[in-house]
Design goal:
Blueprint: H1 2-9, E1 22-27, E2 30-36, H2 45-50, E3 62-68, H3 80-86, E4 91-96, H4 106-113, E5 117-120, H5 124-130, H6 132-140, E6 144-151, E7 156-158, H7 171-183, E8 186-190, H8 191-197, E9 219-223, E10 243-247, E11 252-255, E12 261-266, H9 273-282, E13 287-292, H10 294-303, E14 308-314, E15 323-324, E16 334-338, E17 341-347
The structure holds ligand AOF and zinc ion.
Amino acid sequence: MRKCLQLAEKGKPFVGLNPMVGSVLVKGDAVVAEGYHAGFGLAHAEKALIEKLPSDFSYQDCTLVVNLEPCSHHGKTPPCADLIVEKGIKKVVIGTLDPNPLVAGKGVARLRAAGVEVEVGVLHDQCVQLNRKFFVNISENRSYCIAKWASTADGFMASSPEMPRLMISGEDAQNHLHWLRGYVDAILVGVGTWEADKPRLDCRMVDPDIEISDSFNPVRVVLDPNLRGNYQVDRVDVVFSPILVLNTFKDGEEVTPRGNKLHFVKIPNLWVWDELLQILLQNKISHVLVEGGKKTLEGLLLSGCADEIMEYRNTELRAGGGITSPDFPNGWQFQQWLGKDLLRVYKRNLEILEESDAV
Ligand code: AOF
Ligand code: ZN
């Protein structure tokens, strides 16, 4: 199963809304074949594995290991459970059930009905961990959301408006953040931050040799219910990623004088985070990093919708005043040093489909 997880991760940049899935075929002590889901719309991990073997290969004494339940539905590809039965595989070991309502236990049921021995739950937590984004997208029908801020040792996230701008994070922490920005589909800020900081919201520090382009930078989302922001003049020449403005007045598309795409998306007057994240998923944003400011972050934390919370804390710098970091009493679960900055992370517990709840 550990091998499956490694294989699955190879698909990370390409699977889009699909899960990362890896599969291994074992005979005795030997691994006979490996497969993984290499991209959205492409063969599932089980089929990718089977395609590597000769068509007359005998699966008689083989066990198939896969981190996600084999599917039972006709999607862009036919059901993997049927393929497994057709090939005469007698044992399947699974990490987690597939929360997709089209599958949700039906893959296991189909295999068992055909006399296949099925074991579910091997390395269960790691398997859930790998596909957290998929699990939230499919079972809560909303974008996966990470709340992030940087903090000084004395608990400030920014200077007051009349003070000079505070640079909190060191180089390692900034590199980490820019890697994260390159991985999510979008970065969201409130209109206050958009106007005050004029943030670039790009991932320019990931690799200085990589030229910044449209496809590389995440969509910039501004939460601007009353349309107070200025979007006509973009701040820098190099950023071309679209700007999506969540507002309560209008839908529609415009182009800035510099050629940036502006996409206005209307949200209800009394919006709640759950709905905003649903709207983002409807706009093809499956993964969003919320970077501030304080009001936006605190609203998100209160809503309980933050799937991950990350604080980059500079353990040496003291600001002595300014805007305090959001209050987060739930307790951090992981921490990692990035130079002099301490990255602290909290991950929300997801409700996971158990075998006993499945059809
Ligand atoms: C598997 N193995 O490798 C993957 C699965 O549109 P399709 O046909 O690609 O189906 C996508 C759904 O299939 C996806 O939402 C998830 O439920 C399942 N993904 N299943 O047996 C795989 N990637
Ligand atoms: Zn499948």
